[in-house]
Specification:
two-stranded antiparallel sheet, 10 helices, mainly alpha
Length: about 270
């Protein structure tokens, strides 16, 4: 029970803090999707000198569902001599694809979780707004890493079109080794249930704030929702089905977040800050 108590102190310090954490997680997941696709773009630009288009939102692209995509074009592809199928030991061949190793976004999400965990361990953050945003980003990075690697670890399933499977193929590793490596990375991420015991917030919790005490959290989240909405409205690609339910659903969520954060921010200007 002590472990549950410590987890509660870390995540559920009081009602308004927990409510704002729930309000922050969706937009932080959307922000992490932008980071994810931006990492693909950076990896390609490092090889080719050109940045590919990034599409960091829910959509149907060429008939398949994607939660973000970085499509290639003639300026952002490179030719590699590598394996192209899941079968270990399969022959290599020349293949032209988006430049860069496809596994960098998963490694990036993993490093974000580790970095934030170290901050929680060694820095006694006293600002509730900063503490809220760090926790929300931690969850978003965990979701990004674990959802993208779960097929390999939990089901031992390799699908060439999936990023983490393609990362294994491009490095010419076998499924057994890749599954063991993924399991080790998961253990490091899930060590949260261990290091939370030593979090400074357990014995020295963050100051409590009422519902109207999160003005600057709303401001930051409003900026992030605005950026996400700009991607939704301005990114155009012939492969996107703009009338699909996923695209419309995601757009509605972004609009709802945009209006909520900015209306809250405006109303909070009339409220005394704690």
């Amino acid at each position: 029970m002590e472990s549950l108590t410590r987890l509660r102190k870390f995540w559920f310090q009081d009602g308004p803090a927990f409510l704002w954490l729930l309000l922050a997680i969706p937009i932080m997941i959307s922000f992490q999707s932008t980071v994810h696709e931006g990492t693909h773009s950076l990896a390609a630009a490092k090889r080719t000198g050109s940045f590919p288009k990034i599409i960091p939102f829910l959509m149907i692209y060429d008939g398949e569902f994607h939660n973000g995509l970085t499509p290639s074009d003639k300026d952002t592809v490179a030719t590699y001599h590598e394996r192209t199928v899941c079968d270990e030991g399969a022959a290599k061949r020349d293949v032209t694809r988006l430049a860069g190793w496809i596994g960098w976004p998963q490694i990036g999400a993993f490093l974000i979780t580790v970095g934030i965990a170290l901050i929680f361990l060694f820095i006694n953050i006293r600002n509730p707004i900063v503490g809220l945003l760090w926790r929300a980003w931690f969850i978003a990075a965990c979701v990004d890493f674990m959802t993208n690697t779960s097929l390999i670890l939990l089901f031992g399933k390799c699908i060439e079109a999936k990023d983490w499977s393609a990362a294994m193929i491009q490095l010419d590793h076998g499924l057994t080794f890749w599954r063991l490596l993924t399991g080790l990375l998961w253990l490091i991420v899930l060590s949260h249930f261990g290091w939370v015991w030593w979090s400074k917030w357990i014995d020295d919790p963050l100051p409590e704030r009422g519902f109207w005490g999160y003005r600057w959290a709303a401001f930051v989240l409003g900026i992030l929702s605005t950026i996400s909405l700009i991607f939704y409205l301005l990114v155009r690609d012939d492969g996107i089905e703009y009338g699909s339910g996923w695209y419309i659903f995601g757009l509605i969520l972004q609009l709802a977040g945009f209006w909520f954060y900015w209306i809250y921010y405006g109303l909070s200007l009339k409220q005394p800050q704690e």
